[in-house]
């Protein structure tokens, strides 16, 4: 017996022969070597035993009554494969044709009578070792498959897109999130991923990384790639770099939302800082203004009859009033919630009608308002008060830009699944490029400027700065386009909260509201 053969947990060897002498001979040889043995007198008894238990090897005689060895071999192979249950046919030299049939039906090996002890034991141990090796391979394969299933399940729940490619660029693993990032398209290679992931927005940059990897197969890369409003962390590293069949791991992590949150946080901190500073300045200036205003009232009584002095005191009081208005604007910056949004979302048309109606009352009939909002209105993800402040400031600026009579058009359209675009256009005097470059700066204004220091005498200059920050903190974008003499167009992109079907008011109600607000509102 081979020294490598372990008999501690081996199943019995099944000896099937109608000859008691042959069975005794085989049992004697095997038990002397420590093998457990079970005997069966014919094929039917053999099948009954194998139905209940599986032996390690079957030593099967060909010529037997009731059922011969060939039929027994055929039936055993219907249940067990060659690796699961080795079958060694025991035959005489005259049964060579039956032996060939048995081998075709799935017998593993054969021995001839009379037995050559050394040949018999060598072939038996060979089948036992082969069976043991196959069993270990199956067990290891099962462990590996279980590990791969666990690893695959873990990969599918990760928020990153993960893929593994071989040296030829073929994809041998991809997790569920990567397939989702590739729009559920078929992924067979690295080229497929580069072309499909994020709709191909990073394809060129990914090919640049791939070119660097071709120069150095050990290269590890951890880089953030950007494209328009997209920010993605890409990590790639080699697996088994010293092997001919090395692999490479790729990870794509979408940082867009995190970067936007960081931007909003920085903006919030900046606004809070400015707000605290502005509130402090406003408080101190109010005290100063109060003293100046009180003293000017005393001087006003003392200067009665002195026209020149009264005119100077009026200038002082007007300047103080403008200063008070400015400090009020500064003080409201402190506790403004610029990131909050109504839970149910903002109805765009309703909010616009409120703002337009209020502005129409202020300007009278010299300005015509046209509002064009789709019938299926999307709810906006923005605080109602902030939206009204934004539109009130923009409309107020548009009104001031129209010297006599004119029209202000407000048009909304669905930009994509995430944003609604709102365009406000006037036919006022417009602005040059130098003015456009400064309109979002705090305290910048073009209204009633002090020529010497370019500061507004009306206390303006915080409106568009505040509008810009409110839009940004809501996750939107704002852009002004203007040319002298051609009016100004403001383009707002505001985030959508949900999709709903908005049912506008009956036409009679709209007409009644228009008459009361003195506004011309057209709903498309």
What brief labels describe this structure?
524 residues; alpha/beta; Rossmann fold; Beta-Lactamase
Please report the total strand number as a whole number: 19
CATH topology call of the largest domain: Heat Shock Protein 90
Instruction: Determine the structural class based on helices, strands and strand pairing.
Output: alpha/beta
Major pleated sheet: 7 strands, mixed
Protein described:
By secondary structure, the chain is α/β, with parallel strands linked by helices. The protein has four domains: 13-139, Response regulator (Rossmann fold, 3-Layer(aba) Sandwich); 158-254, Beta-Lactamase (2-Layer Sandwich); 257-335; 338-517, Histidine kinase-like ATPase, C-terminal domain (Heat Shock Protein 90), CATH 3.30.565.10. It is built from 15 helices and 19 strands. The protein has helices spanning 20-32, 43-52, 69-79, 96-105, 117-157, 176-181, 190-196, 203-215, 256-302, 307-331, 348-363, 384-401, 433-436, 463-473, 507-517, and strands at 13-16, 37-40, 57-61, 87-91, 109-112, 161-166, 171-174, 221-227, 230-239, 247-254, 346-347, 367-372, 378-380, 406-414, 419-426, 449-450, 455-456, 477-482, 488-499. The strands form four sheets. Strands 11, 12, 13, 14, 15, 18 and 19 form a seven-stranded mixed beta sheet that branches. It has a five-stranded parallel beta sheet with strand order 2-1-3-4-5, with helices on both faces. β6 (161-166) and β7 (171-174) form a beta hairpin. α3 packs parallel to α4, α11 runs parallel beside α12 (384-401) and α12 (384-401) packs antiparallel against α14. The longest helix is centred in the middle third of the chain and has 47 residues, at 256-302. It is rod-shaped. The termini are far apart. Residues 499-524 have low confidence and may be disordered.
């Amino acid at each position: 017996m081979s020294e490598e053969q372990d008999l501690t947990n081996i199943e019995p060897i099944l000896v099937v022969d109608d000859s008691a002498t042959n069975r005794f001979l085989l049992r004697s040889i095997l038990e002397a070597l420590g093998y457990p043995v079970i005997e069966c007198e014919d094929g039917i008894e053999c099948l009954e035993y194998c139905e209940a238990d599986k032996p390690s090897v079957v030593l099967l005689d060909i010529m037997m009554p009731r059922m011969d060895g060939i039929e027994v071999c055929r039936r055993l192979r219907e249940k067990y494969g060659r690796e699961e249950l080795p079958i060694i046919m025991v035959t005489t030299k005259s049964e060579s044709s039956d032996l060939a049939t048995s081998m075709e039906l799935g017998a593993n090996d054969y021995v001839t009578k009379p037995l050559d002890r050394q040949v018999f034991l060598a072939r038996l141990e060979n089948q036992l070792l082969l069976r043991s090796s196959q069993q270990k391979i199956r067990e290891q394969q099962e462990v590996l498959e279980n590990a791969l299933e666990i690893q695959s399940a873990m990969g599918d729940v990760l928020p990153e897109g993960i893929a593994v490619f071989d040296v030829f660029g073929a994809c041998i693993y991809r997790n569920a999130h990567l397939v989702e990032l590739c729009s559920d398209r078929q992924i067979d290679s690295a080229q497929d991923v580069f072309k499909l992931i994020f709709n191909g927005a990073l394809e060129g940059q990914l090919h640049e990384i791939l070119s660097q990897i071709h120069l150095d197969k050990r290269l590890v890369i951890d880089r953030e790639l950007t494209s328009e409003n997209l920010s993605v962390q890409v990590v790639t590293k080699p697996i088994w770099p010293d092997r001919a069949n090395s692999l490479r791991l790729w990870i794509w992590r979408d940082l867009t939302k995190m970067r936007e949150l960081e931007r909003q946080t920085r903006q919030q901190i900046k606004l809070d800082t400015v707000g605290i500073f502005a509130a402090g300045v406003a408080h101190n200036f109010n005290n100063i203004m109060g003293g100046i205003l009180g003293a000017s009232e005393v001087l006003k009584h003392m200067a009665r009859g002195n026209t020149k002095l009264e005119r100077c005191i009026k200038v002082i009081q007007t300047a103080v009033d403008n200063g008070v208005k400015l400090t009020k604007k500064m003080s409201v910056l402190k506790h403004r919630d610029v990131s909050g949004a109504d839970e149910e979302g903002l109805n765009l048309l309703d909010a616009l009608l409120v703002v337009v109606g209020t502005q129409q009352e202020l300007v009278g009939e010299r300005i015509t308002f046209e509002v064009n909002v789709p019938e299926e209105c999307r709810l906006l993800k923005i605080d109602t008060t902030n939206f009204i402040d934004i539109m009130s400031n923009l409309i107020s600026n548009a009104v001031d830009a129209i010297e006599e009579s004119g029209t202000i058009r407000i048009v909304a359209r669905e930009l994509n699944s995430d944003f609604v675009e709102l365009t406000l256009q006037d036919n006022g005097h417009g602005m040059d490029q130098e003015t456009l470059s400064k309109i979002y700066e705090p305290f910048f204004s073009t209204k009633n400027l002090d020529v010497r220091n370019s500061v507004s005498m009306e206390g303006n200059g915080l409106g568009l700065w505040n509008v810009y920050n409110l839009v940004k903190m809501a996750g939107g974008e704002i852009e002004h386009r203007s040319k002298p003499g051609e009016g100004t167009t403001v383009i707002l992109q505001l985030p959508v909260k949900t999709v709903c079907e908005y049912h506008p008011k009956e036409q009679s109600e709209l007409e009644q509201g228009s008459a009361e607000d003195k506004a011309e509102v057209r709903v498309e």
